[in-house]
Amino acid sequence: MQSWKDVQVADIETMKDKFIGLAEAFTESQYDYRSMEGVRSVRDVLALAVVEAHIFPTAWGSAPPAGAATGFGPENQRVGSFAKTAMIRELNTAFDHLIGVVRGMDEAKRNESSSYFGRQMPVHANIATAMADLHEHLGQLISYARANSVVPPWSR
């Protein structure tokens, strides 16, 4: 039987593959697509995935990786205008960082108290909540792909 940590790591690895697969499947010009005014573009959603993979672990006691800005706003500003190639490269390293942080935690660390946007919970629950948020963004990208006749690589 897999441990809860192993389940979480496997989930993040699957999300990494799907985010990168979609990032590769969209054309550069489609990165600016947004379904309507006032919502994130494809580029914005991909950037948010990078930002969250870098910044969420700070709530679990881990530092952001080298080169990442400190905080959601500054990191989003750093990543938000990346071209397709740079975004894909950053998605790879961001998800590798996230996977490494979760994989590297022992059970004592996973049971420590943490905060998710002001809600107190154990780190392992914070990880699950953060992954639910990333799944939401993945769903948004899938919707954008369908609206642009982009077939997700795992659907071929």
Short description:
This protein is mainly alpha-helical. Helices cover 60% and strands 5% of the residues. It contains 6 helices and 2 strands; from the N terminus they run H-H-H-H-H-E-E-H.
List keywords for this structure.
156 residues, mainly alpha, Four Helix Bundle (Hemerythrin (Met), subunit A), two-stranded antiparallel sheet, 6 helices, 5% strand
Written account of the structure:
The structure is a single chain. The chain is mainly alpha-helical. The chain contains six helices and two strands, in the order αααααββα. The model has no long low-confidence stretch (mean pLDDT 96).
CATH fold node name: Four Helix Bundle (Hemerythrin (Met), subunit A)
- CATH arch. level architecture: Up-down Bundle
Which residues sit in consecutive blocks of at least 5 with pLDDT less than 50?
none
Question: How many helix segments?
Answer: 6
CATH class: Mainly Alpha
Please tell me what the overall shape is. Answer: globular
Binned, the helix content reads 55-70%
Query: What is the topology, as strand order, of the major beta sheet?
Result: 1-2
Find the CATH superfamily: dinb family like domain
- Gyration radius, rounded: 16 Å
Structural class: mainly alpha
Total number of strands = 2
H-E order: HHHHHEEH
Report the portion of residues in β strands. Answer: 5-15%
State the major sheet: 2 strands, antiparallel
